[in-house]
Amino acid sequence: xxxxxANRQTKHDTLHELKKNRxxxxxxxxxxxxxxxxxxxPLAGLWMAFTNxxxxxxxxxxxxxxxxxxxxxxxGTGMGPKSIYxxxxxxxxxxxLGLIFPISIAVFFNEIGGKLYKKFTQSMMFFPYFLSWVVxxxxxxxxxxxxxGVVNRLLTSFGVEKIRWxxxxxxxxxxLICCNVxxxxxxxxxxxxxxxxxxDKSLFEAAEVDGATxxxxxxxxxxxxxxxxxxxxxxxxxxxxxFGDFGMVYGIIGNNPVIGDEVAVIDTYVYSAMRSLxxxxxxxxGLFQSVMGLxxxxxxxxxxxxxxxxEGLF
Amino acid sequence: MKRKLNGSDIALKIxxxxxxxxxxxxCFYPLLMTLSVSFSSEKVIAFKGYSAIPQQFSLDTYIxxxxxxxxxxxxxxxxxxxxxxxxxxxxxxxxxxxxFAVSVSDLKYKNVIAFICNxxxxxxxxLIPWYYMCVNYYHLKDNIMGLIVPSLFSVWNMFLLRxxxxxxxxxxxxAARIDGANYFQIYLRIAMPLSKTPLLTVGLMYAxxxxxxxxxxxxxxxxxxxxxxxxxxxxxxxxxxAISSGRVPSGAAANIALPSETVKMAVTILTIGPIIFAYxxxxxxxxxxxxTGAVKE
Lengths: 314, 297
Prior knowledge:
The complex is a heterodimer.
Chain A: H1 2-20, H2 22-44, H3 58-61, H4 68-76, H5 79-109, H6 115-126, H7 133-144, H8 150-157, H9 172-197, H10 201-209, H11 214-239, H12 246-253, H13 260-263, H14 266-276, H15 279-307
Chain B: H1 7-38, H2 42-48, H3 60-67, H4 70-103, H5 110-122, H6 127-136, H7 145-148, H8 155-166, H9 170-178, H10 183-194, H11 196-212, H12 215-220, H13 229-244, H14 250-255, H15 261-294
């Protein structure tokens, strides 16, 4: 009986709290309804991954097929493993280059004195962040168009044969990786500059007094002090390594039938499979991705906690 | 106290100037190229190719665009502007209310609400169930709401705003409480006016997101009247792309009217136009937002 009494007590407390702060809770309602509609209710639709969905029987009435859809993803077509490989490949290089470029930009940016020069160059480097992937797609076209593109013009001026870029699939993973670095380096360098703004200046002054060159200061002070930021950002990227950038791939490749399959990431594959292979199968692919994401984010978070004295990513 | 610069320091400085300058150019060159092609005459582009210097400066392309397919582009502009204005306003309202509520230390279940938000980042149902609900139950297909509603709330932006709201001293709220104000009045009259810069920052982030969005259109819109600008451009590019691959059946290729090189770039410029003009004024807010978002409280 004591237990129910305690339950009643907590229930009473909850009601009291909800009543006391009803205005604040009411203010949360629109946002929570949004999450309910677009994040939580769709979770029920995951059941489609284990069925053979048809419109007549609906999500929960369609025949149960267990793991058949997932098996088909791994073993049925070459596209499943290929899209996983592409996603990991593009993201892996994105992470590596996404460390090298933003950190170098931030470090060297810090060595520059001229205020106007700094302002000007930072504006230029940040600019790609403001462009949509479709706009980046037209820019890429300007570079790689067969007849009018900048790259082929350069090649012919050196006497090299033109390349029909949009008909050759093998170059495009590299091109996509470059686009990714191009779009995000300026943005990410600002994060590192923000971290550098918080550094203890006296350390650098002391090093200067001791006769350390700027290069030595970068090597022994700046870079080690940037490491926590770099680790957190990298862990976050690793947590999302199974998620490809749909906008990037679709914005740049569009409907191209030759390149499309070759550079497909899981996200674009889900979208195209929705049309060709149906809802159940593509839901299963999406579920695989979500589960891998959950596992990796959990691991990344645990690692971050271990390194950062108990502070995780979220 | 300052030690004299030695050779290595000078070399480093020169290298830094050159390196940063080069990266800046690489980031900015494509815009110059796009601009210059859109202001060039079509014949010269076909003959000489793309370049960052306008060749035979002409406004023909823009005159042509507004003369022929002008109505389509203007309508797309209208759709984009409507979606951006309405979407940004609603998103900012919804986001700031929730962010304010969970920033009040008095709120007992703020962590529960924060978890409800966080969980959606960690685990999602993926595209298909989301799409299924949007189309079959929320009726967002070929509906202008489909371009707005699915993007009205970003958990990241909410946490960003919460960081700012948390910096406001809670004693201000308590004083207002004693004077008989409820929390909505406090939000409206104290928290919001004190957070003009953060609200501008997050508002601009939402505005950029709505302006640049074509994903929602790709998902929900078939009716050409509802195409936002970005999706208009996407369709041009996608067709060009398919034809450049050389593997489209000739019959199909004949049905696709390809815009000329200059038209493509002019539409691109029209698409990013407002961003270019606003860029000098809005950039600092984004820098501010990026730095705050990166520094965890």
